[in-house]
Batch of 3 targets.
Target 1
Amino acid sequence: MAVLPIRITGDPVLHSPAEPVGAIDDELRTLVADMHETMHAAPGVGLAAPQVGLPLRLFVYRWEDEAGVVHEGTAIDPELFISPTRIDPLDEDEESEGCLSIPGERFPLRRADRAILRATDLDGDRYEIVAEGWLARIFQHEFDHLNGVLYADRLAHPYDKTVAKVIRKKSWGGPGQSWMPGIDDLDA
């Protein structure tokens, strides 16, 4: 497994819709393992393939809820979503959010409190998960990445102006910029 560089806002792969995943093979399994290692090194609770420079509809996550239950790779609650096709927000909740592609920054963003996600696992089986609370937020955030949307694109005034100033100040916003979890200190 390897830690991959995380693209920073402005890279075209972060601002374009991702393509469906093709074959589920050893190369994809290696990518998934590398994405998990990168997410843990960052540290983050989710990571989408576009964030590591690949325009694929795929994301991983790992999250521990308030009761200390870790949500990860089981048949019922996998930590990987390949070619998700739908997310249905059912209710809204306002919380602060951050993104590994805009490292070190957090802003309030209104998201649905519940979401339904349908996807495919590494065995090629389709499944559906109804998520609530923080897990629903993670799913929506990562699903947005697959559609070329960063959380900063959804911020309301005045936060949209503030994040734009931060991006300009840090000279982000162009292609090819990235940071390496575990090596670079960007307050992510």
Note: The chain is about 20% helix and 30% strand.
Target 2
Amino acid sequence: MLLANLDMDVLRTLATAIDLGGFAKAAGRLGRSQSAVSLQMRKLEEQVGRPLFRRQGRGLALTDAGDVVLGYARRILDLNDQALAAARGIAVAGTVRFGVPQDFGDTWLPAVLARFARAHPAVTIEARVDRTGQLVERLAQGGLDLALVWGKPALANATPVGTLPMTWIGRKDFAGAEGAEIPLALFEAPCVFRQPGLEALDRARLPWRLAFTSPSLAGLWAAASAGLGITIRTPLGLPPTLGVLGKAQGLPKLPGVALSLYAAEADPPMAVVRLREILLEELAAMMAGATR
């Protein structure tokens, strides 16, 4: 039996649809109609000879065969992209200074930098993991080429990544007592997450006290894990000892927080351009998973 050759373009559409959470969003990202995307998926099912999707509520989910194909699709696409980037990026060299919030430093950042290093081994990356305020200041002063930051600081050359929900975070056994002050573990001011949380508590007429402050996210995680207080972040990168809290614990709803990628220059060097492209691709996949 002759084996079919999987279409690279169709595999990329599949991965994009899963990352973004639907055919309609994939169509918008890829510049195609939704019917064209659906036709590509039917073609892929015909090539594989198995159903790849099943109904799940109002949307679609992958079958077991779909999960297998998606896994191989990502590997095939990664090799394809690495080959093209390596061929095109032979002459790309220099240094890129990149800043990222502490939420991403331990979990998301290493894999992204590894992907970039494989494609552009001649480029040196100086990564700085810090609080948003410090990153914004260094970017404005010319100390960074790229910075991923929370909120919407008054800086030029921004690429919006998306919005994530702010959440109350604490020990999974946390239960606030009625009328008792809510203990908080927060970053020192100024902090993108601090003021919206305090305002939400005040609007709900819930008493609170500042039980712990720290300049580092590791300090907040440690304090929350020890039961000293609850904190406010996004659901990204939570330690296993902590969970998302909310209405069940009598806590008010929090607003969303914007995430944007800023460049120091409108027309940056090629090394910065390539890192920005890879960052935006990886961030789109991360945001899709986080919102799901």
Note: The longest strand covers residues 94-101.
Target 3
Amino acid sequence: MKLENWKIVPVLSVLAVATIVTPYARAGCGLYTPVQKDANNQPQIALPELETAAPAIDDEDAGKSEPSIVGTWKERLISEGSKGVPDGAEVDASYAQWHSDGTELQVSGMRAPLTGDVCVGVYVKTGARTYELNHFGVSYDPTGQTLVGPARIREWVTIAANGNATSGRFTIDQYDEDGIVLAHLQGKFVGTRVTMETGFQKVE
């Protein structure tokens, strides 16, 4: 399948469909431009045993209250160590909801709806104020007519003690329908909670 090239702008000049002369992959709920996957650059994280999203606090933290990840968040994914994408480039900016039943929903601000801009996921609590997300989107080519395949986004997230910010890291793998990895991105994850006091926010 021939995929159209997309470009990504360094984070300070805001991501756009066509920008500077050097082409980079564009993310969101998936990727279009194939990037060579570096097997030595994959995160070596052991998957926790699946459980509900209910708090599972260590004995030493028992009785202490901690903030919940449940709510609506403004989130950004920033490239770091991705082959073919400069460090600091914003590869997605989205609004997401984390639900009390361990499910998650995200709407990407950097994907046109016809290409697949809504992703869904599940998460588990892995420790005090820490969570792991396993998240999928369905990607189409830029015309919205040809299915590319599933995109898997994983996030390892820590919520701040005040409950209003998150940080961590992410990986994105875009597959074709045969399970071949077409592109891989990784980097850092940051988020801010959306509250009744939240006003205007730029999408990107």
Note: Confidence is low (pLDDT under 50) at residues 1-25, 32-63.
